[in-house]
Amino acid sequence: MKHYRLLSVLTACLAIAGAARAAESSVKFSNPAKPGTLSVRIAHGELRVQGADVDQVTVKTDARASSKGTPRSDGLRVISSSTSFALEESDNHIVLEYGLENWSEAAEFEITVPHNTHLNLEVSFGGEITVTDIGGDVTIKGLNGEVDLKNLSGGAIVESMNGEIEASFTAVHPNRPLSFTSMNGEIELHLPADAAANVRFRSQNGSIMTDFDEDVLITTTTSGRTFAPDTGEEFAEMAREVAREAAEVAREIAEEVRVAVKEARKVSVDVDVQAPRAPRAPRAPRPPSIPAMAGGKVISGTLNGGGVDLQVATMNGDIIVRKND
């Protein structure tokens, strides 16, 4: 009998945990007659955005929603929480942020938006990004993790330091440019057979391949050297730029640690204070920016006579451009 009771308790706990994980937050754009913009910035975790026939943005996540301003059962009001996310709307712009001010645990976010929503997505330190069925413009920046874009029909600007990028488009438009950059990772694009584009492909260490016919995708190959006398100098300049960025991040971390230690010492010495403030945890460092790319081989030309600007660049990885099946 005890085993049955224990099993019942465990089942109830799992049900409660599952309900917590399945908790949802929703918000509507203030002007639904116009395409809204969703901006998401998380430190690390998986991010999945799905376009749908809906009139609001719905977020499902295993992270806890912010309870800022809401009194707790003990009467305390939460001003800031280290593990919660914030979801706010203003002027047809919805912003979701999580884990940017401290070292929070990774979280998964599943977000449903109207099809025509514009997206600005950033995963600062690591995590996969997936976007499906979006007609608005998409801007993505990631440090470590794959980017998978499916059934897009708007513009796209994607930057990744370490991770493969795959994107498929149902339509492209002349005034909505496409740009894809990965320092380390393959980039694969799927375009409509009748897509018209002015193309520019750059690869340092990798092949550039396509299944478009030669009379449809007409290209020429040139050197990618732009600002240094030889490729070695270009790589050296890139290394210096990355080193400068890393040094700046290190300085920020050191300053945060210095402030935290100073506050901790103040708390330990000032014993007369009745309610000393807890020492502040060091803030998470900002992600390094992706350095400008140069060198390698550059292939430029036109697809179906020219149209939208399409730029693809990778330092270590292949570039593949396919026709949609």
TrEMBL record:
DUF4097 domain boundaries: 139-212
Pfam families recorded: DUF4097
Signal in keyword set: yes
Signal peptide: 1-22
Tagged with keyword Signal: yes
Keywords: Signal
Name the record gives this protein: DUF4097 family beta strand repeat-containing protein
Annotated source species: Synoicihabitans lomoniglobus
Higher taxonomy: Bacteria, Pseudomonadati, Verrucomicrobiota, Opitutia, Opitutales
